[in-house]
């Protein structure tokens, strides 16, 4: 599962319940655009290659203090490709070692960034005597974005219409005679994704809209039945999952602190059962000090889908409660 950056999840949660300032709005749009571009490439990958290749998504690697982040990594024969996905809109030119749009030169050199990542991964494979060549692929995924290359570059750089034919040109040849797999080696030095440095103050938290919102349209006007919450838009959500999702949303907003039962009850506000919230925390969350009854739980600072991704089968069964008689 490709995961949103925590920064984006935080901004989304704040935006859902309050207002973003000008800097936050710009960051939100930039991060959302980048994430949507990565999802678009995932869809093309799935369509043209399916399960033909094993790949790693959203890899942050720390090899002897050199950190690199890649959107997708995959192997074809003895070549490991490092894919960097750009969801840029407009007409770009790469000339004299610089990326330009009009007369504006980008401060960040995307080619040099890619080359730095290639050097890190090449050194990693060489140190472990894996005979693998590393190549960069820079993908302009936006249909309204193009890059014109005036410099000769060894990197593979693709505009949107070039992506399908390039994907289909991959051989899908797999080498299996290596004692240590390339994926195992990368995972050995993989570190968690960059977290967010944004902090929601106590004052800002108080100003945010409280309660459970619809997972589909965002409305806070929900009708509570015995097992489900119903929205005017027609969306129905199992009550247990709605409570869990809201707990996790609080965790994203206050990622820098433990989950505290009393504060989560306040986050739900009146109209939602404090006992139900307490039981949800006891059942699904990990207490910081099990022998204490202070109501503090570990906070992973992630949305529900990521926090409980290993429990998908359990929640599939929980979804069946939608079909239970709920007019109580």
UniProtKB/TrEMBL annotation:
InterPro entries: NERD
Domain of life: Bacteria
Domain NERD per the UniProt entry, residue ranges: 33-147
The protein's name: NERD domain-containing protein
